[in-house]
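Friendly challenge for the regulars: who can give me the structure tokens for this chain first? No prize, just bragging rights.
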Amino acid sequence: MTGLGAVTPIGNNRVDFWQRLIAGESGVAPITAFDASDFATRIAAEVKDFRPDELLGRKEARRMDRFTQFAVVAAGEAIEDANLPDDQAFKDRTGAVLGTGIGGIITFWLNSEKAYENGTWSKVSPFFIPMLMANAEAAHISMRHHFKGPVFSAASACASANDAIVTAYNYIAYGDADAMITGGSEATVSPLAIGGFASMRAMSTRNDDPTRASRPFDRERDGFVLGEGAGVLVLEEYESAKARGAKIYCEVLGYGQSADAYDLVAVDPDGTGVMLALTRALAKAGIQPSDVDYINAHGTSTPIGDPAESKAIEKAFGEHAFKMGVSSTKSMHGHALGAAGGIEGVATVMAVVEDIMPPTINYEFPDPECALDYVPNVARSAPVRIALSNSFGFGGHNSVIVFGKVR
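First reply, four minutes later:
Bragging rights claimed.
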């Protein structure tokens, strides 16, 4: 791992994001993207002070959906951080695999609204399809930086970014690329998404107390808070990165993937599928449960999901489950759906680098069904030699990444 980039509700670059994360700051506030006064949920974790025209150029920015803008900006930061070689031979073996759960839903919403208001579909933008498509994020990164390796997007709901990282890892492991830009991006704060999730009763309705609304593993949790943003990472083949003198944050030691095979949107309350992903991740990385110091949990702050994940961790780790830190940074930046694994991947890498476990804020009332050490409310300085990042999505998709200090 040689480069990191972030655009999040608590910071529009990796440094600000990390500093506010370990400070325990919340990015949740009343929705500003549209008038949400008639919705059951009127809060979200929006990216703030993001100026795409300045960052990308007005012409380019206008041809990108917000999720693509986030991805391109975060990728630019990660690529600069990695100081990748500028020669085309290297770029020919560099690819981009990014995750997104939904893609250009804001473009869909705005164009539909425009067409209905004008009474004709001829008002739909000629850029509607290129802006809407999920692969736009990866395509724009490829074109902007002239990368000609494997380029596409992964879509597995809230596991999308982790699955993208797994795919990028394997392209390098199989010798099909020397470097990959990976992670995920999402921007869904819109009437369509808020309305849809509200109808499912999946989101918090703590509208009068937004900064305390996302409270993973806490007994008083009442649903997730929708977030947005991007987390992008640069993966390189180790010997190649070492030979060029690259700064190496950490290593990707392995991964585990599974399916619940249970329900399209409901979590398996027994956590069996999640347990399989965790145990497969340990096996792939060649490590024992006792080797893990920290888990960045999926922890969405939902009544059913949090106990299921806790139960799965207990099954996979046995007694060691109670000896390591397990926190959910979604308590601060919300649930960014397909971008979750990218944003939380950046957080987990920094935890390994800095030996700091980010906190789970708003943890006030212990839940008997969630009995682990959730690093409550305050970041913890402690050795983080190996850490896991969990992401699980609608459809029963489970994806776990293992990060470790450079050996």
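The two ends are 13 Å apart (CA to CA). The longest strand covers residues 251-259. Your move, everyone else.
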